[in-house]
Protein backbone atom coordinates (compact mmCIF):
# COMPACT_ATOMS: atom_id res chain seq x y z
CA UNK A 1 0.00 0.00 0.00
CA UNK A 2 1.35 3.39 -1.01
CA UNK A 3 1.39 5.98 1.77
CA UNK A 4 -0.26 9.20 0.63
CA UNK A 5 0.31 12.61 2.20
CA UNK A 6 -2.73 12.39 4.49
CA UNK A 7 -1.68 9.02 5.88
CA UNK A 8 1.91 10.20 6.33
CA UNK A 9 0.74 13.31 8.20
CA UNK A 10 -1.49 11.18 10.40
CA UNK A 11 1.42 8.82 11.14
CA UNK A 12 3.64 11.75 12.15
CA UNK A 13 0.92 13.22 14.38
CA UNK A 14 0.44 9.83 16.04
CA UNK A 15 4.16 9.42 16.70
CA UNK A 16 4.33 12.90 18.26
CA UNK A 17 1.28 12.52 20.48
CA UNK A 18 2.19 8.95 21.53
CA UNK A 19 5.69 10.02 22.57
CA UNK A 20 4.34 13.05 24.43
CA UNK A 21 1.68 11.00 26.23
CA UNK A 22 4.21 8.29 27.06
CA UNK A 23 6.42 10.87 28.78
CA UNK A 24 3.81 12.64 30.89
CA UNK A 25 1.08 10.03 31.47
CA UNK A 26 1.37 7.07 33.91
CA UNK A 27 2.09 3.93 31.92
CA UNK A 28 -1.10 2.11 32.97
CA UNK A 29 -3.23 4.99 31.68
CA UNK A 30 -1.16 5.23 28.52
CA UNK A 31 -1.37 1.51 27.71
CA UNK A 32 -5.07 1.31 28.57
CA UNK A 33 -5.94 4.11 26.16
CA UNK A 34 -3.55 2.88 23.45
CA UNK A 35 -4.81 -0.70 23.34
CA UNK A 36 -8.47 0.22 23.68
CA UNK A 37 -7.98 2.57 20.71
CA UNK A 38 -6.35 -0.21 18.68
CA UNK A 39 -9.20 -2.54 19.59
CA UNK A 40 -12.14 -0.39 18.54
CA UNK A 41 -10.16 1.19 15.70
CA UNK A 42 -9.64 -2.26 14.15
CA UNK A 43 -13.18 -3.49 14.77
CA UNK A 44 -14.88 -0.38 13.40
CA UNK A 45 -14.08 -0.98 9.68
CA UNK A 46 -15.15 -4.61 10.03
CA UNK A 47 -18.52 -3.49 11.40
CA UNK A 48 -18.87 -1.02 8.53
CA UNK A 49 -17.84 -3.59 5.93
CA UNK A 50 -20.48 -6.06 7.11
CA UNK A 51 -23.07 -3.30 7.66
CA UNK A 52 -23.96 -4.52 11.14
CA UNK A 53 -24.29 -1.11 12.74
CA UNK A 54 -27.37 -2.37 14.59
CA UNK A 55 -25.28 -4.92 16.48
CA UNK A 56 -22.68 -2.32 17.45
CA UNK A 57 -25.53 -0.18 18.81
CA UNK A 58 -26.97 -3.09 20.79
CA UNK A 59 -23.65 -4.38 22.14
CA UNK A 60 -23.29 -1.82 25.00
CA UNK A 61 -26.80 -2.61 26.26
CA UNK A 62 -26.00 -6.32 26.15
CA UNK A 63 -22.67 -5.78 27.91
CA UNK A 64 -24.18 -3.67 30.69
CA UNK A 65 -26.76 -6.37 31.41
CA UNK A 66 -24.12 -9.11 31.17
CA UNK A 67 -21.81 -7.37 33.66
CA UNK A 68 -24.62 -6.99 36.18
CA UNK A 69 -25.74 -10.60 35.69
CA UNK A 70 -22.11 -11.73 35.83
CA UNK A 71 -21.83 -10.37 39.38
CA UNK A 72 -24.97 -12.27 40.39
CA UNK A 73 -23.86 -15.51 38.73
CA UNK A 74 -20.41 -15.22 40.32
CA UNK A 75 -21.91 -14.94 43.79
CA UNK A 76 -24.32 -17.82 43.19
CA UNK A 77 -22.00 -20.09 41.15
CA UNK A 78 -18.37 -19.01 41.71
CA UNK A 79 -17.00 -21.47 39.15
CA UNK A 80 -16.05 -18.56 36.87
CA UNK A 81 -14.85 -15.02 37.56
CA UNK A 82 -17.19 -12.04 37.22
CA UNK A 83 -15.50 -11.12 33.93
CA UNK A 84 -15.82 -14.67 32.57
CA UNK A 85 -19.50 -14.87 33.47
CA UNK A 86 -20.11 -11.48 31.87
CA UNK A 87 -18.29 -12.56 28.71
CA UNK A 88 -20.19 -15.86 28.43
CA UNK A 89 -23.57 -14.19 28.94
CA UNK A 90 -22.72 -11.38 26.52
CA UNK A 91 -21.67 -13.80 23.77
CA UNK A 92 -24.82 -15.89 24.22
CA UNK A 93 -27.06 -12.83 23.85
CA UNK A 94 -25.11 -11.48 20.86
CA UNK A 95 -25.20 -14.87 19.09
CA UNK A 96 -28.96 -15.18 19.61
CA UNK A 97 -29.66 -11.68 18.28
CA UNK A 98 -27.21 -11.85 15.38
CA UNK A 99 -28.39 -15.23 14.14
CA UNK A 100 -32.05 -14.30 14.56
CA UNK A 101 -31.43 -11.43 12.14
CA UNK A 102 -29.28 -13.61 9.89
CA UNK A 103 -32.17 -16.06 9.61
CA UNK A 104 -34.62 -13.44 8.39
CA UNK A 105 -36.00 -11.33 11.25
CA UNK A 106 -36.17 -7.59 10.63
CA UNK A 107 -33.08 -5.86 12.14
CA UNK A 108 -35.07 -2.79 13.24
CA UNK A 109 -37.64 -4.91 15.07
CA UNK A 110 -34.97 -7.06 16.75
CA UNK A 111 -32.93 -3.98 17.70
CA UNK A 112 -35.91 -2.23 19.27
CA UNK A 113 -37.00 -5.32 21.19
CA UNK A 114 -33.46 -6.06 22.37
CA UNK A 115 -32.80 -2.51 23.58
CA UNK A 116 -36.11 -2.51 25.47
CA UNK A 117 -35.37 -5.87 27.09
CA UNK A 118 -31.71 -5.26 27.96
CA UNK A 119 -32.26 -1.70 29.23
CA UNK A 120 -35.12 -2.76 31.51
CA UNK A 121 -33.32 -5.89 32.68
CA UNK A 122 -30.12 -3.92 33.35
CA UNK A 123 -31.97 -1.55 35.68
CA UNK A 124 -33.41 -4.48 37.62
CA UNK A 125 -30.09 -6.37 37.73
CA UNK A 126 -28.02 -3.33 38.76
CA UNK A 127 -30.51 -2.40 41.49
CA UNK A 128 -30.38 -5.97 42.79
CA UNK A 129 -26.57 -6.03 42.76
CA UNK A 130 -26.28 -2.71 44.59
CA UNK A 131 -28.69 -3.83 47.31
CA UNK A 132 -27.43 -7.40 47.67
CA UNK A 133 -23.68 -7.57 47.05
CA UNK A 134 -20.48 -5.76 47.91
CA UNK A 135 -18.52 -5.20 44.70
CA UNK A 136 -14.93 -4.12 44.12
CA UNK A 137 -15.69 -1.23 41.77
CA UNK A 138 -18.23 1.51 41.22
CA UNK A 139 -20.93 0.55 38.75
CA UNK A 140 -21.05 4.19 37.66
CA UNK A 141 -17.63 3.63 36.08
CA UNK A 142 -19.27 1.06 33.80
CA UNK A 143 -21.95 3.52 32.74
CA UNK A 144 -19.75 6.61 32.38
CA UNK A 145 -16.38 4.94 31.78
CA UNK A 146 -13.13 5.63 33.59
CA UNK A 147 -9.95 4.27 31.97
CA UNK A 148 -7.85 5.75 34.77
CA UNK A 149 -9.28 3.19 37.23
CA UNK A 150 -8.17 0.21 35.14
CA UNK A 151 -6.26 -2.32 37.24
CA UNK A 152 -3.11 -4.09 36.10
CA UNK A 153 -4.96 -7.39 35.64
CA UNK A 154 -7.64 -5.66 33.55
CA UNK A 155 -4.90 -4.04 31.49
CA UNK A 156 -3.33 -7.43 30.77
CA UNK A 157 -6.71 -8.78 29.64
CA UNK A 158 -7.23 -5.73 27.42
CA UNK A 159 -3.80 -6.10 25.81
CA UNK A 160 -4.40 -9.79 25.16
CA UNK A 161 -7.83 -9.20 23.63
CA UNK A 162 -6.47 -6.33 21.51
CA UNK A 163 -3.69 -8.49 20.05
CA UNK A 164 -6.06 -11.36 19.29
CA UNK A 165 -8.74 -9.17 17.74
CA UNK A 166 -6.31 -7.08 15.66
CA UNK A 167 -4.56 -10.20 14.33
CA UNK A 168 -7.83 -11.88 13.41
CA UNK A 169 -9.24 -8.71 11.84
CA UNK A 170 -6.23 -8.69 9.49
CA UNK A 171 -6.87 -12.37 8.76
CA UNK A 172 -10.58 -12.10 7.91
CA UNK A 173 -10.79 -8.51 6.65
CA UNK A 174 -10.49 -9.21 2.92
CA UNK A 175 -13.12 -11.94 2.92
CA UNK A 176 -15.38 -9.81 5.12
CA UNK A 177 -15.26 -7.06 2.50
CA UNK A 178 -16.39 -9.55 -0.16
CA UNK A 179 -19.18 -10.82 2.11
CA UNK A 180 -20.35 -7.27 2.74
CA UNK A 181 -20.45 -6.52 -1.00
CA UNK A 182 -22.10 -9.74 -2.17
CA UNK A 183 -22.74 -12.56 0.30
CA UNK A 184 -24.30 -14.82 -2.34
CA UNK A 185 -21.20 -14.54 -4.53
CA UNK A 186 -18.95 -15.61 -1.66
CA UNK A 187 -21.23 -18.56 -0.91
CA UNK A 188 -20.90 -19.75 -4.51
CA UNK A 189 -17.12 -19.77 -4.07
CA UNK A 190 -17.36 -22.10 -1.09
CA UNK A 191 -16.75 -19.57 1.68
CA UNK A 192 -18.42 -20.57 4.94
CA UNK A 193 -20.24 -17.42 5.99
CA UNK A 194 -21.14 -18.82 9.39
CA UNK A 195 -17.43 -19.13 10.28
CA UNK A 196 -16.83 -15.44 9.60
CA UNK A 197 -20.09 -14.49 11.30
CA UNK A 198 -19.16 -16.31 14.50
CA UNK A 199 -15.70 -14.73 14.56
CA UNK A 200 -17.12 -11.24 14.06
CA UNK A 201 -19.88 -11.66 16.65
CA UNK A 202 -17.33 -13.02 19.12
CA UNK A 203 -15.05 -10.03 18.50
CA UNK A 204 -17.89 -7.61 19.18
CA UNK A 205 -18.76 -9.43 22.41
CA UNK A 206 -15.13 -9.47 23.56
CA UNK A 207 -14.60 -5.81 22.73
CA UNK A 208 -17.84 -4.71 24.35
CA UNK A 209 -17.02 -6.36 27.66
CA UNK A 210 -13.35 -5.33 27.58
CA UNK A 211 -14.13 -1.69 26.78
CA UNK A 212 -17.22 -1.21 28.95
CA UNK A 213 -15.40 -0.12 32.09
CA UNK A 214 -12.83 1.88 30.10
CA UNK A 215 -14.99 4.00 27.80
CA UNK A 216 -18.36 3.31 29.40
CA UNK A 217 -21.80 2.26 28.29
CA UNK A 218 -22.71 5.75 27.06
CA UNK A 219 -19.87 6.10 24.53
CA UNK A 220 -19.07 2.52 23.59
CA UNK A 221 -21.20 2.18 20.46
CA UNK A 222 -20.11 5.65 19.29
CA UNK A 223 -16.42 4.73 19.45
CA UNK A 224 -17.08 1.41 17.74
CA UNK A 225 -18.56 3.25 14.76
CA UNK A 226 -16.84 6.64 14.39
CA UNK A 227 -13.25 5.58 13.48
CA UNK A 228 -14.28 3.84 10.27
CA UNK A 229 -16.71 6.64 9.37
CA UNK A 230 -13.86 9.14 9.76
CA UNK A 231 -11.60 6.98 7.59
CA UNK A 232 -14.29 6.56 4.92
CA UNK A 233 -14.59 10.35 4.74
CA UNK A 234 -10.88 10.64 3.95
CA UNK A 235 -9.91 7.73 1.77
CA UNK A 236 -10.99 4.89 -0.50
CA UNK A 237 -9.80 1.31 -0.50
CA UNK A 238 -10.61 -1.22 2.19
CA UNK A 239 -7.16 -1.61 3.74
CA UNK A 240 -6.54 2.15 3.72
CA UNK A 241 -9.79 2.57 5.64
CA UNK A 242 -8.62 -0.04 8.15
CA UNK A 243 -5.23 1.55 8.78
CA UNK A 244 -6.55 5.11 8.93
CA UNK A 245 -9.33 3.99 11.27
CA UNK A 246 -6.77 2.60 13.71
CA UNK A 247 -4.57 5.70 13.41
CA UNK A 248 -7.49 8.05 14.03
CA UNK A 249 -8.60 5.94 16.99
CA UNK A 250 -5.16 6.23 18.56
CA UNK A 251 -4.85 9.94 17.82
CA UNK A 252 -8.30 10.90 19.12
CA UNK A 253 -7.90 8.71 22.20
CA UNK A 254 -4.47 10.07 23.13
CA UNK A 255 -5.55 13.66 22.48
CA UNK A 256 -8.73 13.11 24.49
CA UNK A 257 -6.71 11.66 27.38
CA UNK A 258 -4.34 14.64 27.43
CA UNK A 259 -7.23 17.11 27.30
CA UNK A 260 -8.97 15.31 30.17
CA UNK A 261 -5.83 15.56 32.30
CA UNK A 262 -5.30 19.26 31.61
CA UNK A 263 -8.97 20.22 32.03
CA UNK A 264 -9.75 17.70 34.79
CA UNK A 265 -12.72 16.20 32.97
CA UNK A 266 -13.82 12.62 32.30
CA UNK A 267 -11.45 10.92 29.80
CA UNK A 268 -14.22 8.97 28.07
CA UNK A 269 -16.14 12.19 27.45
CA UNK A 270 -13.17 14.10 26.08
CA UNK A 271 -12.23 11.19 23.81
CA UNK A 272 -15.78 11.11 22.47
CA UNK A 273 -15.81 14.87 21.84
CA UNK A 274 -12.47 14.72 20.01
CA UNK A 275 -13.70 11.81 17.87
CA UNK A 276 -16.88 13.72 17.01
CA UNK A 277 -14.96 16.88 16.07
CA UNK A 278 -12.65 14.85 13.84
CA UNK A 279 -15.63 13.16 12.19
CA UNK A 280 -17.34 16.51 11.59
CA UNK A 281 -14.13 18.03 10.18
CA UNK A 282 -13.52 15.10 7.81
CA UNK A 283 -17.16 15.18 6.73
CA UNK A 284 -16.77 18.84 5.74
CA UNK A 285 -13.61 17.97 3.80
CA UNK A 286 -15.44 15.17 2.00
CA UNK A 287 -18.38 17.42 1.09
CA UNK A 288 -16.06 20.14 -0.20
CA UNK A 289 -14.07 17.62 -2.21
CA UNK A 290 -17.13 16.14 -3.90
CA UNK A 291 -19.21 19.31 -3.79
Describe the global form: globular
Report the mean per-residue pLDDT as an integer.
86
SSE ordering = HHHHHHHHHHH
Note the gap between the termini: 28 Å
Query: Which CATH C-level class is it?
Result: Mainly Alpha
CATH superfamily: ABC transporter involved in vitamin B12 uptake, BtuC
Radius of gyration, Cα only, in angstroms?
Answer: 19 Å
Strand content: under 5%
Indicate how many domains the architecture comprises: 1
How many helices? The count is: 11
Helix % is over 70%
Q: Low-confidence runs (pLDDT<50, min 5 residues)?
A: none
- Count of strand segments: 0
CATH topology: ABC transporter involved in vitamin B12 uptake, BtuC
Largest sheet: none
Which structural class is indicated by helix and strand composition?
mainly alpha
Q: What's the CATH architecture?
A: Orthogonal Bundle
Could you characterize the architecture of this molecule?
This protein is mainly alpha-helical and 291 residues long. The chain has one domain (5-286): Orthogonal Bundle (ABC transporter involved in vitamin B12 uptake, BtuC), CATH 1.10.3470. Helix content is 86%, strand content 0%. It is built from eleven helices and no strands. Helix 3 packs across helix 9 (193-234), helix 4 packs across helix 9 (193-234) and helix 7 (152-181) packs across helix 9. It comes from Ignisphaera aggregans. Belongs to the ABC-3 integral membrane protein family. It is a multi-pass membrane protein.
Amino acid sequence: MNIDNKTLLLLILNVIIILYAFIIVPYTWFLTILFSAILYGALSPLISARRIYFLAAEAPHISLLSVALGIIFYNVLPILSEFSWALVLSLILIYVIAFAIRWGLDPDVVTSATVAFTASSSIIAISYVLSKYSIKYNLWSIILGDPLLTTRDELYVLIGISFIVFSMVLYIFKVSIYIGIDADYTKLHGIKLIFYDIILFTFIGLASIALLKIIGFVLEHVLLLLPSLIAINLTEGSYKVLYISVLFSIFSSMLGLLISIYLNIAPAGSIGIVAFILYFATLILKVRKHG
